[in-house]
Amino acid sequence: MISLHNASNGHALNRDQFVSLLRAALSIDECRFARQAALAWLGFFPGDLQVNLHYAQALTRAGQPDRALPVLDHISQCDPEYLEAIEALVQAQAIQQFHTPSENKAKPASPAIANPMSGQIGNQIGWLMALGGSPDIVRGLGLSYPVLREKSLVGWSRALSKARQAFEQGELEQAEREIHEALPAEGSTPLVDVIHLRILNARMSENSAGSQMLRSLAAYYRQRWPDCIHFTLLLADALMGGGEPEKAVALLHEAAAGDVAGQVAIRLWGADHPFRSLWPDRLEIDLDLPIPASVSAILGWNRLPEHIGLFESQAIPAEETNLQPSAETGAQGANPKNQPSQVNSQESQSKETLRSVQSELERLGVRLNRPSLASADGRFPVYVIMTTREGLQKRYGEQTAAILEKEMLRLVAAICERRDWGALLFYADEGSLLSNGSQSSLARPAARANDPWGLKLALMDLDTSLCKYGERIGCLLIVGGPDVVPFHKLPNPVDDADVDVPSDNPYATSDENYFIPEWPVGRLPDGIPDQEANAQPILYTLSGLTARHRSIANGSSGTAWYRRWIDRMVDWITRQGQNVSYRRSSFGITAAVWRQASLTVFRPIGDPRAMRISPPAINGHPSSNGRYSSPLPTARLGYFNLHGLADAPEWYGQREAVGEEASMLVGAGEDYPVALKPSDVMNSGRAPQVVFSEACYGANIVNKTIDDAISLKFIQAGTHAVAGSTCTSYGSISPPLIAADFLGYAFWNNVKEGIPAGEALRRAKITLAREMHNRQGYLDGEDQKTLISFILYGDPLAVPAGIQVKAKSVLRSVKPLSNLKTVCDRSHEQGEPEPVPDDIQEFVKSVVRQYLPGMEDARLTMSLEHVDCGANHPIRHTDGPRSQKRPDSASARQGFQLARKVITLSKDVPNTAHIHHHYARLTLDAQGKLVKLVVSR
């Protein structure tokens, strides 16, 4: 029994007290309070399986089994022997599968429905029965007890039940015989493998031989079921016995993060197991919620006035979807008896304890080579569709804007059908949210539709509000071009022709540090001039996106594995019949001058020899007009490392050199032939599904039509995601890869692993930032520009066909990447620039002759890398306090001069109807040695 005196005087609730509080709330159907309290606890201890279970039970009882199922799936994967969780999973699955959302009581299954014991729920009931559970929990489906027993305890379930009974009675040989009958016919559950490994582990304790087999099997099962804590613990035990304590301790700490109460370890080894010290001794929080009087009465707190909370708090909103509590309910939640100093002291003490635990988890996460282990944000991800009402109405008119809203809400509904995502439509200029027929608003003033920083602040407020309900921004889809939702015009960190850098990066962060995105962002632009105002292209794209997400939802809604396999085979055969060239998985085009770097970037997704070189070899066949572009072949992935111009729709190749030796390798003709034009991008299912372009201005859509921008043409032709730069981009001539080349290589590696395109780009930026920071100690100008100029058009959750989506592929860290330093290498002197010393000029010319033929007569400027910058752009550091200042109001820092010099070469090359602006940047160290060379794309 929780002490009333302790609670009322502000003492923290320990875990036993808190669990009793949740159970009491659930026993009288105080579901709203149970949800809120559980989320408060899980905000500190996301790995508490029992509290997660009570949270899911509260959701199920509140008529939200679709939100409960992902939580229960995760718990059952973590602890397959958790009987109470499996019972809750079966109940939630049954309610969702056989009841209409509006019904509160069970409805017998219709005879027209296929056998309810087949598919996912049948597998789950078999799982339940194997654990000794009773099928009575689904009696309301109209199936009698004997029928359930006959239909569920067959195959692996019956054999597994006998194996468990024999194992618990110590009859290991009998248990092993039974488990081998279950192994070949097991369903999609880790329980069979858990029992098998436990039996084997018990037998190994009797016989020292075979420890290597135990370790290998534990490692195999852990790879197969990465969330299952049993395999992590048993592998750690095997490693400890095998003389590898460091690896073992790292695994034990991983298990402690996933099961903070240690219930699996206790079940395996007993309460006093030798590793008990690695789990926290005491878990407690200060519950900042008003406790209903009915719950207080059950717990013996009935002397408390009705709805008086433990600490000073805000009331729970009337509806969980309403993010703006009323003044009346807000007044009821206050508790004036608590003194702020006392609360702050307790909060400080609690945070200090959490920091010590967190630092230990982080240290061992690094040792395990999984640094995100202790910092992953476990809140439920929400797919946020953001636009502005004012922008849509100005662009298309009120009637068409209303049609667009309906289509966006269809997309919201399709995503909500998926178990792993929620979704909502967010009008950032109004602060209003729409989802599942409900509408609410943030308690904030309206933002101007043409103010990107104001829209970003609204998005930050949304993320804060979602946090109160155990949710987070999982990814962001911006609907509309820059006239609907404007780009952020960020300061250009490089000395080139770009006035600023249009970017969506600030929309991806929860503060002003916009270099490292925290969640993936995609944008659906239309590219139609204002005078036409035709919404058909964007409506078509939204419709296709809705269909794809609905197909994903249907594919994960309990369809039997063999049915999904047959569907995939039929789909594959159909595609082969429609278009033989679909067999090509990837395609790429590169300018001849930097083909060595391009081949390295392309290698993760295809054979480098299949790349097209522009201009082609001398025995190639140019088109009749002397140009080398042609319609793209059908492929799932497309990579383009070509030149792009701000005022031209085409992408161009470049000859490797002009010498006689080079002429033997590349074709004669134009130095900058057209390699790809918008008309080369074909629709009708022939466009690549995911595209990465390194071309300068490859993602430039400002004042562009579909026929003026290849990126827009890709989206219009059905490409799911296009990554490219909004302005000048930089890359290397040959390995080692830097800037855009490094970003592309990391992007394709992520895509190949089944990570969605938006998350693949986000992770690639983090990888680039870390790598360059490790090489240099900071991010220089081209590093910074690469991070902010590359954006994504299309669905941030796009995964190309034929690639299996990686589980938990979209992650968000509780603590974003920090301690990254940036420097400025721009020159800002008034009047004549500082002359380049003769020795440096001579060295630069020698480098140009070797690596950059054709740039011998380029203009040279020199600058010194520095930290304190007096120009009108900030030097962003991510190691300081995080605030909500505008990015153009960075505080002054103590300046110091770095030893490295940056030599910038620039040259304008006329070609046909356009002028190609070329830049090369050479970075020299204190001894004058070339440490970095990048060229513009």
Structure report:
- The protein has 937 residues and is of the alpha/beta class.
- Helices cover 40% and strands 13% of the residues.
- A hairpin with a 5-residue loop joins strand 23 and strand 24.
- Helix 5 (65-78) runs antiparallel to helix 6, helix 6 runs antiparallel to helix 7 and helix 10 (172-182) packs antiparallel against helix 11.
- The longest helix has 28 residues, at 340-367.
- It is globular.
- The N and C termini lie far apart (70 Å).
Number of strands: 24
- The assigned CATH architecture of the domain at 579-794 is 3-Layer(aba) Sandwich
* Largest beta-sheet details: 6 strands, mixed
Helix content: 40-55%
Uncertain runs are: 1-10, 100-118, 141-153, 303-358, 360-375, 557-564, 574-582, 618-627, 658-668, 870-897
The helix tally amounts to: 30
Look at the structure and give the CATH class of the domain at 579-794: Alpha Beta
Q: Which class best fits the helix and strand makeup?
A: alpha/beta
Estimate the strand proportion. Answer: 5-15%
Strand order of the largest sheet: 6-5-4-3-7-10
- From the alpha carbons, calculate the radius of gyration and give it in angstroms: 30 Å
Distance between the first and last residues' Cα: 70 Å
What is the global morphology? globular
Mean pLDDT: 75
CATH topology of the domain at 579-794: Rossmann fold
